[in-house]
Automatic annotation (TrEMBL):
<dbReference type="InterPro" id="IPR004659">
    <property type="entry name" value="RNase_E/G"/>
</dbReference>
<keyword id="KW-0255">Endonuclease</keyword>
<dbReference type="GO" id="GO:0006364">
    <property type="term" value="P:rRNA processing"/>
</dbReference>
<keyword id="KW-0694">RNA-binding</keyword>
<dbReference type="GO" id="GO:0016787">
    <property type="term" value="F:hydrolase activity"/>
</dbReference>
<dbReference type="GO" id="GO:0004519">
    <property type="term" value="F:endonuclease activity"/>
</dbReference>
<dbReference type="Pfam" id="PF10150">
    <property type="entry name" value="RNase_E_G"/>
</dbReference>
<keyword id="KW-0460">Magnesium</keyword>
<feature type="domain" description="RNA-binding protein AU-1/Ribonuclease E/G">
    <location>
        <begin position="169"/>
        <end position="240"/>
    </location>
</feature>
<dbReference type="GO" id="GO:0004540">
    <property type="term" value="F:RNA nuclease activity"/>
</dbReference>
<dbReference type="InterPro" id="IPR019307">
    <property type="entry name" value="RNA-bd_AU-1/RNase_E/G"/>
</dbReference>
<keyword id="KW-0540">Nuclease</keyword>
<keyword id="KW-0378">Hydrolase</keyword>
<dbReference type="GO" id="GO:0005737">
    <property type="term" value="C:cytoplasm"/>
</dbReference>
<dbReference type="GO" id="GO:0003723">
    <property type="term" value="F:RNA binding"/>
</dbReference>
<dbReference type="GO" id="GO:0046872">
    <property type="term" value="F:metal ion binding"/>
</dbReference>
<protein>
    <recommendedName>
        <fullName>RNA-binding protein AU-1/Ribonuclease E/G domain-containing protein</fullName>
    </recommendedName>
</protein>
Length: 330
């Protein structure tokens, strides 16, 4: 049985693909960022020998990899071919291709519905609260049998390390299946390095690699991998049209929630809050500044409409967690 669970809030949409009651994929869309398939018009800021950079309507820089015939300063129609991807310490700009003319514009709702339809054509989306989806991502590790699978983002890609006691082949076998599950669950793309427990037997290493392949069979994302070498290392390269769940919730930090994530989750809390009084959001200065920015005005308006009350944002560097929402009792 295949289901799609959805959880939509101002600025951020979540979905889980569920097979036989088990969540196998997590999908996020953040509406304030360029979305795969989105078309718009932007200004050609500068040309390069192999393409150029466009500035979109919100001031973001987009990369075009093919040569552009127009002169710098001209306005071009484009379509997003790869979304922005945040990595530790840097943000890779979205990539786009030039189009001759814009077709009927698809808004974030349409792009999201199109994405859900591609997950499972026969499944109807069912609204659910999906706050627990990110527990493993926040912990940075998972347990499979006697194997503990640790993972961490780096600029070069996602790195997995396997710990545990007992037979190395048994540990690696459990870890191979678990890593394949995590790659699909969090929609990981790009470079992946896996540090298995070292095994002398080449046949055993090949068997573990084949177990990884078998566990990855249901994953629609294409990938290539190396063999497991004598030190236990295996390299996997996966297609990367969108940022992973880890990229989106952590941004340019390694494991701390990004300011964008904190701001979106606070606005999510506002939208869910009950009562009739003013909603007061307390957050760090950086998060509060983001929430009050002009670019986020639409998100604030959506929150106020859903909550049925005005929203006030207060900056406080001493606030705990990612912030909190208070509902006035009047």
């Amino acid at each position: 049985m295949i289901e799609i669970w959805t959880d939509t809030a101002p600025g951020e949409r979540r979905a889980a693909l569920v097979e036989n009651g088990k969540i196998v994929e997590i999908h996020l869309q953040r509406d304030l960022r360029p979305i795969l398939g989105q078309q718009a018009t932007g200004r050609l800021d500068r040309k390069t020998p192999a393409g150029g950079y466009i500035i979109d309507g919100s001031g973001r820089e987009l990369l075009i990899r093919k040569s552009v015939g127009s002169s710098e300063g001209a306005y071009l129609s484009y379509e997003i071919t790869r979304e922005e991807i945040a990595e530790p310490g840097r943000l890779k700009p979205a990539e786009a291709k030039q189009v001759e003319s814009l077709v009927a514009q698809a808004d974030p709702d349409q792009l999201w519905n199109r994405r859900l339809a591609m997950l499972a054509a026969e499944a109807e989306p069912e609204p659910k609260i999906l706050d627990d989806l990110f527990d493993v991502a926040l912990a940075g590790h998972s347990v499979a049998g006697n194997a503990i699978v640790h993972f961490q983002r780096t600029k070069a890609g996602l790195v997995f390390d396997i710990d545990g006691t007992g037979d190395p082949f048994a540990l690696n076998s459990a870890a191979a299946s678990e890593i394949a599950r995590l790659l699909r669950l969090f929609q990981i793309g790009g470079m992946v390095m896996i540090d298995f427990v070292a095994m002398e037997s080449k046949a055993k290493r090949q068997e573990v690699a084949e177990q990884f392949d078998a566990a990855s069979a249901a994953d629609r994302r294409s990938f290539e991998r190396s063999a497991i070498n004598g030190f236990g290392l295996m390299q996997v390269v996966r297609s990367r049209p969108r940022p992973s769940v880890l990229d989106q919730i952590f941004g340019t930090s390694i494991r701390a929630l990004s300011d964008e994530t904190k701001a979106l989750w606070l606005y999510r809390d506002v939208a869910r809050s009950k009562g009739f009084g003013i909603r007061t959001v307390t957050a760090s200065t950086a998060v509060a500044t983001l929430m009050l920015s002009a670019e986020w005005q639409t998100v604030r308006a959506q929150c106020e409409r859903l909550a049925g009350a005005a929203v006030t944002v207060i900056a406080d560097e001493k606030c705990s967690g990612y912030g909190h929402v208070h509902v006035a009792q009047s």
